[in-house]
Each structure stands twice: as structure tokens, then as C-alpha cells.
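Collaborator request log, item 7. Partner lab (contact: R.S.) asked for a structural prediction of mRNA export factor GLE1 to inform their binding assays.
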Amino acid sequence: MPSESRCWETLQALRSSDKGRLCYHRDWLLRGEDVLEECVSTPQLSSYAGWVVDHVLPHTQENLSPSETSTSSRSTSGLDQPSFVPKSPIRSLAFSPASPRTPATPGGTKGKREPQHTEPMLLQSSRGIEVEGCIRMYELVHRMKGAEGLRLWQEEQERKVRALSEMASEQLKRFDERKELKHHKEFQDLREMMEKSSREALGQQEKLKAEHRHRAKILNLKLWEAEQQRLKQVEQERLRREEGQVRLRSLYALQEELLHLNQQLDSVGQHRDLKVDLLALRSRGNQLCGLISGIIRTTSENGFPTAEDQAVAESALQEMRDLLTDARACEDKRRQDEEEAQAKRQEAQTQQRPEVSKECPAPSQGPGGTRSEDLQVKVQDSTMQWYQQLQEASRQCVLAFEGLTSSKDSQVKKIKMDLQKAATIPVSQISTIAGSKLKEIFDKIHNLLSGKPVQSGGRSVSVTLNPQGLDFVQYKLAEKFVKQGEEEVASHHEAAFPIAVVASGIWELHPRVGDLILAHLHKNCPYSVPFYPAFREGMALEDYQRMLGYQVKDSKVEQQDNFLKRMSGMMRLYAAIIQLRWPYGTRQEVHPHGLNHGWRWLAQILNMEPLSDVTATLLFDFLEVCGNALMKQYQAQFWKMMLLIKEDYFPRIEAITSSGQMGSFIRLKQFLEKCLQRKEIPVPKGFLTSSFWRS
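Returned to partner:
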């Protein structure tokens, strides 16, 4: 078709045109619109172009040839046209194919116009280069002038800075001088003020010294007076003490003589039937001995005896001498009567049966046909021998482990401490909580004594750690049992039974521990023997009081109430031990220290003269704890013993007991009368029943 052929011809013509034959680079396409914008933007001259045209170009045109002048004129006329101002010669050459002066011909070829525009473009490019060079030369000159001006300005500024720095330095020096002058002036003022204050202080100090000397003189005078007064009081106290010591020694001498006279009084008519008047004399002698003992005990608690105490003691001694004189007179009269009666009987027998040989006289009978013997003051020989054997065994045990206790080796000391804790801590843990707990404690003590290792303080302990360990543990264990009676049982009476049952079980398995328990008990409480220590000539008072069981610290004897409380605790523990046995042991053997020893103690204490306040207290404790067991064991004999206490022993206790010490006697009397009335001794409080061992 005709229309289609024309389209193809048009396309062929466009391909053959100048633009159609242009080669395009991909890099220019990637740069984007910035490159195209530079190509189509209108070229502009520099701001210095006018100055160059006015001042540089006229000089340049003068040196050019006529041909060059015409060319430059043409180019100048071209520059004056606002439509064509190339930005640079290179750009003009680069974009020459696209400029308006070189349009492409429809035929696709440059034709004859291309040679016509080549010369103006070259001229234009050289002229642009000259202009651009002039511009750059001007810029260079201008920069050089600016740099020179800047250098001069900098130098001027540096001179000013140096001047200002020198001025500031001078001002700083003047400021430092003024400051130093001010400080110097202030220092001078301060020194003057300090000198003035020092002079005032020295004056005040002198004044205070004078006042101090005056006051010191007054105080020294007062101190001297006080010292004189103190020395006077010390002298008075010394004299009082000396007088008191003299009175005390005199009182002890009186007591010793009184006891000696009392022994003589007891020896009068010994092993003979006594008359009522001689018995009354001996009873009065015992009362006088108790009176002197009470005075000495009160004196030990309060200080030194007074003159009244000494007068009472002297009167008691005089009365004792009179009693002894009367007793001897009664004894002489009785002996004379006996001799006369014997002579009469011999004469009668000689008359009736002269052939019969003479017989020895029979002992006289007292009222009612019964023999009335006097009570003893000393313990029986067999009992005393037993007591001494136990004390000797205790001393031998102490000597056996002396190397362990006296060692300086730290390891041995540690072993000793561990053994002591292992022996004493379980005893301290004995309580009435449960029978199972009591069995654990018993097993621990038994294992320790048997040489087995036990745990104590987180460590394993055994008596085999030291050759003397067993002796040490046995001694400390026995000591702790008695200590518990002295402290724990004294405060809580029910604690006697769990402690006693463990001690009894250990005693049965380890007899030496039982002997040491008795030794410690007899030493701390001699009345548990029973034993009344006698005061010997030359013995110190404190030693005698310790023998009686009193605690003496710093020459001060403990109070009577505390003494009786400790004795009561130990007696209750002893009364519980003799009636209890360990329930898990073998019953084949007899009790190692059973009720027969309790009966022996009761019989011996009733055969001895009572002690004021002590005998009544210990009898009550013993009967309250052990009376029920003795009643079941001895039955009728026990009640005869109770009647003997009521009818014969009570009057003796009451005779030596002062009005202020009747509490223990009244308690014992009421307890015994109630038991006799009911014909029964009640079970002691805290006694361990079968239900306790099942817990």
C-alpha cells in the first residue's frame, strides 16, 4: 500500500540522518539526567568576563593580523549574541553536532554547510580559552593580593596579641605583688594578734596556776585529813579484827574445851545403867555443845564474835564444868552405892552358900527392865574404816591419771578435754522426758567406760586414746553424778530418780564408778556416812568448815540455807540410788548398794547425837524418798524404828534446836506423825513408773 511504503521511507531517512548515526554509550545513560541537563543548559560567562573584555581584549586585538581581527570581530559579534555564549571551548566542540547552527539535513548527510562553520568554531574556542585564561590569571593575582593582605593582617594581629600578652603579664605581676603584700600584711596582723593572745593566755595561765596551787594546797590538806581519818579507821578496824580474832580463838578454845568436857561427861558411867539425873546432865551437855556450835556458825556468817557471844560461851563452859562435876559426883555416888550393894550381896551369898564361888556382877537394868544406853558421838569403827577405804581409793584414782591432767602437751590437753566432755555432758542431759532418751544416755556412758568410741562434740572419743583415760573418765563421771545431786536435785527434787537409776545401772556394770560416787558423796556430805568430823587442835577454821561440808570462798562461809539445800540434794540422790535398779539389766545379782545400806544409815544416825538443823533436814529427805521402799522391805521393824524416832529421838532434836531453826524439825515431825497415823509412807513424787519406760 502507498501509505506503508512512505512510513518505511521515513524511518530509513531518520536512520541515515546525523542523529541516527550517533553512537550512545551506556555509561552516559546510567549517569542520568544530570549529564543531559548540563548539555541543554544555557552557557554563562564568568563575573569577570566584562573586565576582561574591557581591559584585556583591546590589547590583544592590537597585536593580531587583519585576518585575525576580522575573525575576532566576527567572534565578538557572536559573543554579543545572548543565544550563543559557550561555557567553555571544549563544551562547544563537544556539543557542536547538536547546536542550532548545525542542523541535520533531511537527507541524512552534513552537506556543504559543515565546512562553512568549522573556522568560526575554532576561533570561538581559542578566544574562549584566552578569556578563561585571563579570568584565571585575574583570580591568581587576586588570590595573591588576598594572601598578602591576610599575611599582613595576621602579622598585625600577632603584634597586637603579643602586646596584649605582655600587658596582661605585667598586670598579673602587679596583681601578684599586691596579693603578696596583702598576705604579708594579714600574716603580720595575725602574728600580732597571736602574740597578743599568747600574752593574754600566759597571763591567764599564771593566774590559773596560782589558783590551782591554792586549791591543791587546800585539797592536800583535805586529803591529809582524809588519810589520817582512814588510817585511824584502819587502825580501829585492825584493833577490832585483832580483838575479834582473839575472841574467835578464845571461842574455839572454849568450844574445844567444851567438847572435851562433853566427851568426859559421856565417858562417865559408860557401859553402865544410867540414872535419870545423869541422862539429864548429858542431854544438857549436848545442848551446850549445840549452843556453842550455833554461836560459831553465826559468827562465821556475820564476821567476828562479840563480847556477848564470848560471855555466853564462857558461861556455857562454866555450866559444862558444873555438869561434869555433878556427873562425876553422881557417878561416884552410884559407884559407892554399887559397891555397898555388891558387898551386901556377897555377904548374903557367903552366908547362904559359902561353897559357891563368887560370880561377876550383871549389868543393872533400867526402868521397865530394858537397858538404856547413851547415844554415840563418834561413828562406829567399821563404818569409819569403810569411809577411809573409799577416800583412799579416790586418792589413788587421782594419782593414777595425774600425768594426764598435768601434761603440757596440747594434744594431751585436747584428749583430756574431749574425755571430760564425753563423761560429763551425758549426765547433764539426764531428765524425766522419756525412758528411751534415758536409755540412749546410759548406753553412751556404758560404751565410753567399755572402751568403745562415742561421739562427743562432732568427734569420736574413746578412753583408749590415753592409757590413763579410763581412770580419768571414771573419776569425772562419779564427780559429775554427785555434782548433779548437789545442784540439780537440790533445786528439783524429782530429778533424783532419773539420775539415780542411771548411776545405779552404771554402778552395777562398773563397780569402781560406784565406789568413787560414794567417795565423792562422803567427802561433800559427811552426814551420808554418817560421820560428824571432830575439830582437832591446830586445825584451821576454814578446813574444819570444809570437812563439815560448807563451801568456803575468800574466807567467807556459805549461808546456812544454801548449805542445807546442797546436803538435802545429795541425801535425796543417795536415798534414790539405794532403792532403784536399771530396768534393762540382769536381775540375777543383788543391788551393789541396796536398801540394807539405807537401813544401816538410818540405824547409825539414830544411834548418834543429833545436830541442830542438820539431822532433822536429812532425816526428812531420806524418809520422804526412801521411806516407802524401806516400809515394804522391813515392814514391822520399820514401824518400830519410826516409833523410836518419835518417842526417843524427837525430844533430843528439839532439845538442841533453837527457836529460829525449828522449821526442819516441825516438817519432819508432821511428816512422821501423818505416816504413823495412816500406817503408810507415800510413794515419793517423781518416782519412775513402768509407763515412763514405755515412752
